[in-house]
Structures are given as structure tokens and as C-alpha cells.
Amino acid sequence: MLTYLHILTGTVALVSGALSFAVTKGSNLHRKFGLTFVLSMIVMASSGALLAFIGKETLNMIAGLVTFYLVTTAF
Q1: CA nearest to 53, candidates 43, 41, 62
Q2: Of 46, 43, 42, whose CA–CA distance to 61 is shortest?
Q3: Nearest-angstrom CA–CA distance, 48 and 65
Q4: Residue 15, exposed/middle/buried by CB under 10 A (0-12, 13-18, 19+)?
Q5: What was the pLDDT predicted at 39?
């Protein structure tokens, strides 16, 4: 189940990130797509770090936590 969440939110992040580039910067659509991107990246990074923790993959867990940190501080 957690793997599907990770894949789904990664797909949403890819699509919403591409759509935010396609609209005018500063518009309402740009803000909505950007917020969708940020939230999906946060969920994706969290679920990826948790999956890595469960699978005892230390480097992937660190990568997920760093991604979470970078996305939240950039927001």
C-alpha cells in the first residue's frame, strides 16, 4: 500500500510540476499547481523514507529525509 502511495504521489508531482511550468508565473493556476507539487513531494519523500526504513536501506532513507527537508525549506 505504501509503495502505491509513493508511486502515485511521484506521478502527481511530475504532472503538477510540468503544469506549473506551462502556465503564467504568479497566476492562480501556477500557485495551485505549485502547492500540489509541494504537497505531493512531501508525501512522496516521507513515504520513500519510510519504505527505506522498513527495508533497512540506510542511504535511501537518508535521501528521502534530505528530499523532505529540501522541499519543506524551499516552500
Answers
A1: 62
A2: 46
A3: 9
A4: middle
A5: 97
pLDDT, averaged per 10 consecutive residues of the chain (75 residues), comes to 95 97 95 97 97 95 96 94
What is the DSSP secondary structure assignment for residue 48, as one 8-state letter? H
Q: Distance of CA 54 to CAs 24, 46, 50, 61, 67, Å?
A: 41, 12, 6, 9, 18
| DSSP tag of 51 | H
Please answer whether residues 17 and 37 qualify as being in contact, where contact means their C-beta atoms are separated by less than 8 angstroms: yes
The string of DSSP letters for 6-35 reads HHHHHHHHHHHHHHHHHS-TTSHHHHHHHH
